[in-house]
Amino acid sequence: MLNASTINLLLKSVLFAFTVAFFSTAIGVIAGFSIYKFKTRFRNFFKIVLLIPLFIPPYVFAVAWKDFLFHFTGNSNLLSSFCGAAFVLVTVYSPLSILIIGTALSNINSAYEESAMLITGLRGVITKIVLPLIKPALLTSFVLVFIFALSEFSVPVYFGVKVFTTEIFTQFSAFYNYSLAISQSVLLALVCVVLLFTERKYIADAPFLSVESKGQNRRFYNSQKLKFYGEIFLTALFLIFVIAPFVILIIQSFNNGTGKFTQALNLLLPTFWNSISLAFSGALLITAIGAGLAYYSWIRNGNLISKSAELFFLLTFALPSIVTGIILIKFFNRPELNFIYSTSAIILLGYVLRFSFVAIKLEENALKQIPRTLEEAAIIEGIPFLARLRKIIFPLILPALFAAFTIGFIFSLSELSVTITVFPPGMEVLPVKVFTLMANSSSALASSMNLIVFILTLIIISIFYLLAKPVFKKFNFTND
User: What is the pLDDT of residues 24-56, one digit of tens each?
Assistant: First the structure.
């Protein structure tokens, strides 16, 4: 397993992931300060729209940027490289860094900053007070993006960049070299697990996965010059991360009329029901599992069982998707488990393993804001368990339940790596069909298919956002 070729490929993959994680975290720091520490114009707008790339399948951005380069230069070979694939993933994962670092900045006790302002300037406050305080968030951002970039499959394979995940998939699906694929999967999983445990405590607590308003009394810095630069930076990110990919997909799709877009829509329409129903079922399971484990952890004050369950889902969240798919196949590919292996149940299981950690932490962080005395008083009054959940607990954490369901739905709808590994024969799922058709499609058709995925995802996000506004307003949750 550890021959020279494997070691070289692993080092190349590590360097690739390091590059993506470094630049994503750097962007996260600048954007995080611009949004959360300066009163930049339209900061709440940027806070929302800059998260959009996180919910769009990475291969959509790969196609968009390849089209962009081809449209303006006539040659897209520059992107079919190590740097090109890294650039695309930076646009995808920088929003995660912004979310993690921004949450840490908003939760800083303003008393530290105000005291420091009495003896030093803004630069000193940032370098000597703020950055040391958010060091856990910086490390978490780097580690998580590193793991996600290391386990990303669709972008490297689309650009023809050979990394560990593409090699595992090739050995498993093309050459049927299961032993080599499994041994490489174990090696990749070990790298991810080692990295995960370097920052396990902060990631396991996941304070950035929260929907309640925190830090509303935080201190904003009064620097018109830095505020102006921040506004320019955020606008540039919005144009590069969101507008440019969307616009270029539109241009490429309709360059020669509506024919290719119509053809793409006809090809993908049969997958809509399967994909949406699977994502809906997966989101329900993810939200229910998250609620159950979060409630058990809250009521038991984080005992050994709940901590072990959370650690398990943290590991499956960080495990490369390709590895998760191979594990599912090796475990369920047997006659007695065929009712799972040959049905959509194996896809749902993949969704649960991949995304339950997010729901657990969202709902657990919401429960932590509820005084346990409410539950204890209800028990003393003799209110039954289900009635307590229905009348006390669920209403108080409804925004977190809603957020967990929304994120679970969108992530499940766009999940490719696990789905393409385990989906049963004869089943059509949107991301798999798009990705497989792209290989032999014209540029216009590929752009049209990815534009449809982009639009569908934006429509779903918009619907959930419009539904969420009255929910959050009713329970006095704000976005500030």
Answer: 999 999 999 999 888 888 888 998 899 999 889
Other beta carbons within 10 angstroms of residue 153's beta carbon come to: 25
Asked whether the beta carbons of 51 and 117 are under 8 A apart, the reply is no
Domains and CATH numbers, the chain: 1-253 (1.10.3720.10), 257-480 (1.10.3720.10)
CA distance 111 to 436: 55
Q: Using 50, 70 and 90 to split pLDDT, how confident is the model at 107? A: confident
pTM of the prediction?
A: 0.87
Binned at pLDDT 50, 70 and 90, residue 452 comes out as: very high
Is residue 192 scored above 80 in pLDDT?
Answer: yes
Q: What integer pLDDT is reported at residue 450 of this predicted model?
A: 92
Classify each residue of 65-75 as buried b or exposed e, where b means 16 or more C-beta atoms within 10 Å of its C-beta: bbbbbbeeeee
What integer best gives the mean pLDDT of the chain? 86
Question: For a pLDDT cut of 90, what percent of the chain falls above it?
Answer: 37
Q: Is the pLDDT of residue 350 over 50?
A: yes
Please, what is the Cα angle at 412 between 407 and 415, to 5 degrees?
A: 120
